Amino acid sequence: MSREGRQTGADAGEAPEAPTGREIVAGVDGSPESLAAAAWAAREAEHRGAPLRLAHAWRWEPLDLPLVQDRDAQQRAAEEVVRSAAAEIGERHPGVAVTAEVLTDTPVAALLDTLDEAEMLVIGSRGHGAVAGFLLGSYGQQVIAAATRPVVAVRARDDRAAEPPTGEILVGQQGTPEDSEAVLRFAFETAAARGAAIRAVRAWSLPPLFAYSPASMRLADDAGGLVPFEEKALREALAPWRERYPYVPVTEHVELGSAGQVLLTTSGAAQLLVVGRRAKRGALGQRIGSVAHAALHLAPCPVAVVPQG
Q1: Global pTM?
Q2: Chain centroid to CA 156: how far?
Q3: What are the residue boundaries of the UspA domain, all occurrences included (predicted)?
């Protein structure tokens, strides 16, 4: 394992509730996508007063081919990836403490191991289009599905990645206050660190006829109808976070439709979309859920995927 680091002082975050101390990790491989991720991570580290760690996974695996394979040259190339990224970040963000290292493991295992002490992991995404299922990349999807901490995906084409963020933090709220605790915590912490406003979105659908029951309809009737019931659910989920972060402006948004559709139609002016994830194992491996999948491949802004209980 090799290291190249730049150590400088870090400015403290302006918001009193913003977390500090835990490092932000960005996976880099020399691609435009990973450099955009590193730029986003550096700005987030600046907001939070946190150190930044740039990580590149490389392990010598000789190919069973009649080719000349130079282990030393490959290792030097891997070291240059992190050295170059660290130099660029250090020049643009001199107030951020940056370390960079080559991890001797496979990409998925290496990136997941960095999360033991990290606040979040930031990775690159290749963009969006018709073939949505292939655009995040197999490594990225595996990391997001298994991560125990939030993972942020940033596109290379997102010109805002290295610019001062504008717009709201958009967060999807589903289920009970306990169900959405982790995703709302991340959204409010991020908004507090950036001095940004939050738009909390709760999507709902008309229940099928067989789902109606006297008990469920009584709850809706007590709230004044289905829409007031959903508005009350969102308000209750937000209440403890509004109390903890009274200086963060919050807009409540309740809309009929699927969660993925509603979030995507309201994400055009957002600086970050935050969604939850309950990974499920399917026939082809871990799945990240339809809402996270849609957000990662189709949202026009960086997307944070937060693991939930």
Answers
A1: 0.83
A2: 15
A3: 22-155, 169-307
